[in-house]
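Changelog note: in this version the structure field was regenerated for every chain. One regenerated record is shown below for reference.
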Amino acid sequence: MQRLTIWICVIGAALATLPGCGSGRATRPSDHVSLYEAGRYRDAFEAARQAERDAPRRERSGAALTAGLAAHALGEHHEAKTHLEPLVDDPDREIAGRAEAALGLIAASEGDYELAASLLTTAARKLEGDDAALALIHAGDASTELGRPETAQANYRRASGVARSTLVRLQATERIERGTFTIQLGAFSLRENAEARAGEAGAISRGLGLGEPMVLEGNASSGVWMYFVRVGSFGTRQEATGARTRLGLG
């Protein structure tokens, strides 16, 4: 079965491979998939809710997953949890894993890194390939926030081992090689804005011996694809905090 990814906006094509999510005609309940794929999250949410009520039982888990992911994309975390939490024990491990991973991202965005690390680590055991790797990367990031660099590095190494695409493997490898902690200078929806920020900060960061700012891409906690500007590589949170102060970032 083709993978459905919760990590980027072009989720719909893979959603269509889950039970009850075939493409079909425009009047099919599974239109929630194409609406999500088009970025019409409010419409996707409403269509998925209708499918949850009206579709055959075997199709309802896929609809609930779309509803939860759409609510997550809209920043409506309480509503997202309502649809996603019942799915973590779904007999379809793929649906269960994706629901659990989405809940982990929500927990991280709410600052509950302990819960995020637990959910994402468990989700990775149910998923495969890049989806498992991305869950492990985010679990590592949550462990970093908790001040557990050894656990974070272990997750990044596991992610590098299971990743199938070069892009995802590079995300894991970059975290391994740069050290556990870095400084984020900004997050942007457009690459050119991120590159402009990196250029502005370059002279100062080089002067402080922090090296050249990097532009990295990935999903934000909302699931939206973003470009992040980061600089430095530090073994401890204290070192990163000191360098952040020298950069004038407080």
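Spot check on this record: Residues 1-27 have pLDDT under 50 and may be disordered. The beta strands are 181-188, 214-219, 225-234.
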